[in-house]
Amino acid sequence: MLNDEFKRRVFVVAYYFPPMGLSGVQRTLKLVKYLHDFGWSSTVLTITPKTYFAFDESFLTELAGRDAEIIRTNAIDPEKLFKSRKTVKLKKEWLRKILNRISQFFFIPDNKIFWKKTAVKAGLEELAKNEHHIIFSTAPPYTDHLVAFELKRVTGLPLVLDFRDSWLDNPYHFYWTPFHKTLHYHLERKIVRSANLIVTINRAIKEKLVARHRDVLNLASVKVLSQGFDQEDFDKFGKPYKKSRTTMKWVYTGVFYEKNTPEPLYKALALLKNSHPQVYSALEFHMIGYVQSEFVNKTKVLQIHDRFVYHDYQEHPVVIQWLSQADALWLSLGVGKGYESISTGKVYEYIGSGKPILAICPDNDVAKTLKPFSNSRIVNPGMTEEIRNVMVELHSAWTRKGYPEKPDPQLQQLYERKFIASQLAKEFNMIARIAD
Fold first, then answer.
1. Predicted TM-score (pTM) of this structure
2. In a designed cystine with 76, which of 114, 190, 241, 338 is the match (CB 3.0 to 4.6 A)?
3. Helix axis angle, 417-435 to 26-35, nearest 10°
4. How many Cα atoms occupy the beta-carbon half-sphere of 218 within 13 Å?
5. Which domain holds residue 46?
6. Do 386 and 262 share a domain, yes or no?
7. Same domain (yes/no): 295, 153
């Protein structure tokens, strides 16, 4: 750790930042939080959120006592219609897809592009007034990278790009025409060429970036810093695990969208109801987050709705309590082109909880992450009987003493937020020395 007199400052471009909730803000927040502990203060350029799917006031309290300044700007988008902050409901999935596709026709790289001018202006004003040593941007939205590119072009400061998702290969992107995809390609190429370092959350994103721009990138110029969990969250908010005598509590956190749906579990649970009715009646599935009405209705069609309890969005400390008290955790990821690069953030908090995990996913990065953990079970979404069998197996284990099996703490530590921030701080130190 550097002494305070040697502390450096990073300028962070992040459209999504607390008090916004959901998983998209946590990586950036936790990096800012722990970079401070390794000699790096932060200035965060973000928006003043007026409307969003969730707000979480607990997040900003984590920066107390740390040198982290937040510069908020207005975003030129539908939020301008709201005079005060408003939480909006998650749209039905079919409607969300339609609106998303329409947006992707008109707005490149994304519908946050109108923030660029305001953000660049505010960023240049701050960088002119106060000394910073590195610019760090995190995406999506990919407009963040375009803002950071302009700030580097004017100031000459080193630029580090963080890819929380793939850009061109993102399975949630829809390219209406080859022209649309070409525009995205050239924007991606422009910003990666300008970067002093590129960071990705997994190897799949890294390899695709390097392959696509192999004349300007190599494996050494792109580093993998995974998603993670914050042990401090579990120390502060976690509750002692106490097993129920009658009901095995399964917990899911987050939302569903695109091909990431709960239907593989639903089908397996319907099968379980017929084959193992006593096991079925002992399971209780708690959904922590927004679950669209069509998925709720699907449980009624399959006649398994009596096993589900819905809790809507919960602030992060409450989520940690649910994870610490759960008997088992589950997640479901889609199958298709681009999904191999998805590393959903919930996986790492699941790892931090130490609980058994049923991962319904293809052979993707999530599967590779979980395979070394002996308390994880990975099943392809199409293998309904195998998903059923894992539920039976874990229920049987739950009935015995010594449950749950604990994961290897050394494996867990690799995904701890503070450790990940320490690795980024080392990269920053090297870049700053080169710049000096």
1. 0.89
2. 114
3. 70
4. 1
5. 4-228+416-435
6. yes
7. no
- My answer on whether 81 and 12 are in the same domain is yes
pLDDT by residue (tens digit) across 26-55?
999 999 999 999 999 999 999 987 766 667
Residues 35 and 61 in one domain: yes
Three-state SS at 160: strand
CA distances from 108 to 27, 152, 179, 334, 339 (A): 24, 21, 11, 25, 22
Give me the CATH number covering residue 301. Answer: 3.40.50.2000
Query: Which pLDDT score is estimated for 82?
Result: 44
Three-state SS sequence of 23-79 = HHHHHHHHHHHHHHHHCEEEEEEEECCCEECCECCCCHHHHCCCCEEEEEECCCCHH
Q: 380-407, pLDDT tens digit by residue?
A: 999 999 999 999 999 999 999 989 988 9
Which residue is it, tokens 């203060």? 41
Structure tokens at 317: 């400390």
Do 221 and 243 belong to one domain? no
Distance of alpha carbon 372 from the chain centroid: 21
Q: Would the CA dihedral through 425, 431, 433, 436 be positive or negative?
A: negative
Tokens 């993670």, residue located: 228
Number of structural domains (the chain) is 2
